[in-house]
Every structure is written in C-alpha cells, then in structure tokens.
Amino acid sequence: MSERLPPLNALKAFEAAARHLSVRAAADELHVSPAAVSHQIKNLEAHLGGPLFHRANRALRLTAAGEAALPLLREGFGRLAAAVQEMRAAQAADAAPAVFNVCAPPSFAAKWLMPRLSRYAADHAGLDIRLSASPAMIGAADETGRPAVDVAIRFGDGEHPGARVDKLLAVSALPFCSPRLLDGEHPLRRPADLRHHLLLHDDTDYPERPDWRAWLAAAGVDGIDAAHGLRFNQASLALEAAAAGQGVALTLQPLAQGDVAAGRLVAPFDCRLRLSSAYYLVSAETTAEAPAVVDFRNWLLAEAAAESAA
User: Fold this and answer.
1) Residue 1: is its pLDDT beyond 90?
2) Domain holding 217: CATH number?
3) pTM over 0.90
4) C-alpha separations of 196 from 23, 31, 184, 192, 287 in Å
C-alpha cells in the first residue's frame, strides 16, 4: 500500500521557506500571509512526526530531515512545472488550425485562385491554408511522411502517375485589352486593327503556349509582325500591361476572367485558339480521400464548373 502523501500546499510552503530560510520571503513568493506559511509547515511537521526547522530568534535553520528533503522537493516541483508546460503546449497544438498546403502556377494563383480562396478560408476557420505559387508537385513529403503539398493545380495533359487527377478547367487563348482601346484614334473593331496596337506576349513556359503568329493565322490576318511587342515571363504581367492600356495581350482565358468581370479587360474578338492542355487538380493517392482534401476538391471543382457555365 502506497504511503499517504501530505498536502501539496504544505510541501510547497516548506520548499519555499527552506530555500529562502525565511517564512516572510516564502509568503511573498506564494502570495499568502506569513501566518499561512507557518500553519502549513506546522501541519507538515505534524504529518511527519518531527520538526523540519530549528527556530531561534526568528531565524530558520533546516534540520537534517529538512536538508534531506529540500533537493528532492525542488526537483519534484521543477518536474511538475515542466509537466504543466508540456500539457499547455500540447493543448495549444491541438487548438492550432490544421495546415493545408495548396500549390498552383504563379499567374493562375494570382489571377484565378487567390480571389476565390478568401471565401473558402472564411468558411474554414480551423484550416490554415497556405498557397504557394510555384511548380512544386504533391510527390514530396515532409518529415512526418505526409505530402508537403496537399493539392497542386497543374497545366498540361493531366498525366501524373501515382496521383489522383481531376480536370479543373478546359482552356482557350484569345486577345485581351483595356476597354479604352475599343475607342480612340485606332479603335479595335476587327483583328486587322491590331496593326495599330502593341502586341503583348505571354512567354510563360507551359505546354502548347499560344503565340500571336498562330492566333493571327487563325484569324486570317497577315501583314502584322507577330514577333514585335513587349514580352513577359508571366501571364499576370502581360494582363496588367493590357489593363493599363499598353497594348493587347494574348493569353489563356481563365487567367483574364476576373479582370473581364471587373471591367478592367475585354476580349475584342471572338476568334480563339483551343488547346488540348487544361488545368488539373492533383492530389497524392495516399491522402486523396482525406476529409480536408475531399472538401477542398469539391469546392474547387464547383467553382470551376460555375465559371464554365457562365
């Protein structure tokens, strides 16, 4: 049968008084009165059946029993404090939002995904969503073995062995410009009017990248230098230049849709280049059916379907 321990408050009062060799100092540390400390120590001595201090002229000196107990009590209270810190840290970790990593091409992230992501985040306060605009894929894993990227959005043929792949958006390419270019000295009325405007080139490195030469040929326009103009390594930069009225950008329709809806851009011509490549949502097979991944996938596919139907 284990020995009945004395009250914790009594042990704490003795440990503080023994360290300071002062009842008053112990009382100040414990935020109680000196009488309360003395009372707890007397209760402890009664429980043990012997004194823990020599008391003379208001000075305290430890007895042999007190000296033997003090180091162990100091260690014990230190371990108790450490245990409380561990419990608080564990509770904080449990209360912290779960991290959810999304990766997408830079221009798609900036122009299509980011404007929508805030709505999803607002409805999922328990999820710490982290958007990375990079070509990273879902194959890499963190130190726990969990994929470092929960879902990735990729443009191409959708071939990603060992992963779940859902088609997000079919795409086509067409010119976009500021509404201001529809009027003025050389208004854009027909494709041939492009000879009076600066061509803005999206030189992003992706499959089937459309170029002005192909679009002008499809539109039946000749006599325009398709290589001339400003070149950008990101579609978002070309679209910003177009919105500023600097020229006409040829790029993928989903990337311009938000600016079109906001009235910053218009598509002056219906002629478009249809691409076999598309945007795909990719997730690791090992986590494809995790609740957070499923929920995000369903939401994103619904967003894409709504845009395609508009």
Assistant:
1) no
2) 3.40.190.10
3) no
4) 94, 84, 11, 9, 53
